[in-house]
Specification:
Helices cover about 45% and strands about 20% of the residues. The chain has nine helices and eight strands. The strands form two sheets. The protein has a six-stranded parallel sheet with strand order 3-2-1-6-7-8. Strands 4-5 form a two-stranded antiparallel ribbon. Helix 1 (about 15-25) packs across helix 4 (about 70-85). The chain is globular. Keywords: Hydrolase, Magnesium, Metal-binding.
């Protein structure tokens, strides 16, 4: 058995799960245009490399605080099925199936908030995921994060934290990612793959020896 760690947005999904979700919520008039503008501003900061990821994950939860977790699961489960599942890349499904058939342990590792990721993982029959863990009290989100966001170096730290009390080896491990934010995770693995990589990732000298593949 080996570990296989998959980034989610841009790697498994052809697009960004937050964008897809919030634009659908805007269409449903659950979030307004002001929220979407703020989302776009955060996205601009992300591409400029100046995003405060801790601020963003808490911002992302704000529309959902009014919902009970049961209500939120119903809402997001339906959006994932309707809007995100059709965006899952065929190659991602094939590679996940390959690892599953080999009895490898498959993980999604993403900075996206856990209450959304769990529905995407379920759609892919993936039991294990490492995401931004958000606090729940009285069956409602509080808008506060519980642990380090798995972003850049945080992906490696969260993976090692998850595995620290278990007998494991990263020998033979696989990592899949599409952007520079995944490089630390890919370097941790014995086999790192650049999946439909963006230009910035291709230019990074740390990954020049890694295989470039497409899931599309």
């Amino acid at each position: 058995m080996a570990f296989a760690f998959f980034d989610m947005d841009g790697t498994i999904i052809d697009g960004d799960s937050n964008d897809i979700t919030y634009y659908e919520l805007n269409r449903m008039r659950i979030v307004d245009d002001v929220f979407i503008q703020k989302l776009n501003n955060y996205e601009d900061m992300f591409y400029k490399g100046i995003l405060d990821i801790n601020e963003f994950v808490e911002f992302a939860s704000t529309p959902f605080i009014k919902y009970s977790m049961d209500e939120l699961d119903d809402l997001l489960g339906a959006i994932v099925k309707r809007c995100i599942v059709p965006k899952i890349k065929k190659g991602a499904r094939d590679r996940i199936e390959y690892h599953t058939s080999n009895n490898d342990r498959v993980f999604i590792v993403t900075a996206t908030n856990d209450y959304l990721v769990k529905h995407i993982a379920k759609a892919l029959d993936i039991e294990d995921f490492i995401a931004s863990s958000m606090e729940v009290k009285n069956n409602h989100l509080t808008g506060k994060k519980l642990s380090e966001v798995p972003f850049k170096e945080g992906k490696v730290r969260r993976i090692r934290e998850y595995l620290k009390d278990k007998e494991y080896s990263l020998d033979g491990s696989y990592g899949y990612g599409d952007s520079v934010n995944d490089i630390e995770m890919l370097l941790m693995c014995e086999h790192g793959f650049l999946v439909d990589p963006n230009e910035n990732m291709l230019k990074d000298p740390r990954v020049r020896s890694m295989e470039v593949i497409s899931f599309k």
